[in-house]
Write a structure and sequence with these properties.
The complex is a heterodimer. Chain A is built from 13 helices and two strands; from the N terminus they run H-H-H-H-E-E-H-H-H-H-H-H-H-H-H. In chain A, strand 1 and strand 2 form a beta hairpin. In chain A, helix 1 runs antiparallel to helix 13 and helix 5 packs across helix 13. Chain B is mostly helical. Classes of the chains: A mainly alpha, B mainly alpha. At the A-B interface, helix 1, helix 6, helix 7, helix 8 and helix 11 of A face helix 1, helix 2, helix 3, helix 7 and helix 10 of B.
Chain lengths: 306, 307
Amino acid sequence: MFYVAKRLLALVVLLVAISILVFMMLQLIPGSPVSALLGQSATNPAAVARLTQELGLNRPLPVQYWRWLDGVLHGNLGYSYQNQQPVSALIGQNLPSTLALAGAGLLISLVGGILLGAVAATRRDTPADSVSMGIAMTLVALPSFWLGLILILVFAVALPVFPVFGGSGLRGLVLPAFTLGLGVLGITARFVRSSLLEVMDSPHVVAARAKGLNRRTVFLKHIARNALLPVVTIIGLQIGSLLSGAVLVEMVFSRPGIGRLLVQSILNKDYATVQATVLIIAAFYAVTNLVVDLLYPVLDPRIGGA
Amino acid sequence: MADRIGEPALADGTLALQVAEAGVQRPTASRWAGLLRQRNFVIGVVLLAIVVIPVLLAPVLSPVGPDTQNAGATFLAPSLSHLTSLMGTDEFGRSVWVRVLYGGRYSIGASIAVVVLGGTVGTALGLVAGYLGGTVGFLIMRVVDLLLAFPGILLALAVTAILGPSLVNAVIAVAIVAVPLYARIVEGAAREIRNLPYVRASRALGAGPRHIIFRHVLPGAMPAVIVQTTVWLGVAVLWIAALGFLGLGVQPPTPEWGQMVSDGQASLTIAWWIAVFPGLFLAVFVVGISLVGDALRDQLNPTAVGA
């Protein structure tokens, strides 16, 4: 219980630090925050005066931060002058699509990674092992934006199975999800292989084999069960890769989402949206990592309250 | 265990791989594994050579300039008849082959700049934090932790949002992502080496911190730094290209692999070669670097010191 409390406290500290960094972003941009936020509308003196008043820019920095944070905690993420919409609305429209993409990508990477890792581990030091690990390494190394285009060429242009760009619903999700998932799959496969090999060498497996159990039973009941548990821990790491990957995949497939929103607002100098998206993604990442961490001792009682 | 796994440092795939590999304790290093390692290293070097040699020889291998346009020869399909159209031509009739070669100079050059910049700053911070410790060390490591809490590309994107899109700013942005990773590795190594008997002996003999850092701590941390640098050359080239692809790195008409892929995306259905070839060079380069990096990691085994 003490452990959980400690981790929760650490999360709060981290979130505060992230929010300070994100708040400071606007201060670091050349020119005044008001003109950065207003963009084109900065030529209107009335708008400048109003926003200066609203942000309390004539007050000290800590006060400004506090007012900003207070707004954020009440769901006010600022106003996007370029889009003529509150940023929270923009994020609300784009978030579900990114979550669907990341979720599907995670599923593909887990299923594929476990299969590939298991093939490699059960055939350790054979050509099948090197081929599997070669595939895993290549998938990690391939630029996802390029892989996406190749998948489009093959499965949308040469064999018109899936829509080239965009496309809604499940059919439109397939190619983007595979692009995203394949990149992460390689990492999972290598992790699964190491984890399986470690368990395969442990005494209880030798004992199970000595009892004369068949290979299948030994693998499923004695090896896989123990070895696949640690795979949960890399889901935390993968969320980072998936979020990073989603930015590129959404751009390749012109798919709405948080990543595309972020890139477009950087290109349009829509700083209110940039700030809010960075904050949301970083906070989401921090929270999911903690959840995965706290979940692990629950799943594997050997870890206990560490 | 749970604490180690909780480190957000592992956000990035390469580090996850290092952890994955570190988990394997082979009971016997079989001959086959040794040969395999050697073979992977050779394949990696060959792949790198395939990409890097033509890129270095770009002026020799280019019949035309990277920006030379030819209105009469747009969207030519790849053909072996002439070197200019070996990889086809783009919408301005520019040679994709020539642009891929010159683009490699920007992509690879920029990633070297990233590891030099990020590696130097990160190593310096890690040495200070790990050797001197104290309040300064504590503060450095807390900033490192904070930077590591952002998924890598998010941090790079935030930095480019502040600095504006350009090649130099993309290098700075990716280097900023690399700094905390170097700092953490070096800090761990430095803290451990600081208390080794021969270092304590050196201190007892009156050696100052400068002497100890440069004579004992830095060489001890070097294997980890070298492995990190090899891995990061591959990561950096991917990220520089990613920023280029997003329009946040190199600006047209300067050729750079990522930016070229993005250029070719518009005409993907009518001229696949414009996007495919720069990406292929990028992919071969990164696979080559990964193979070499893996072999180096096994050889230098930095986990023996750092972990």
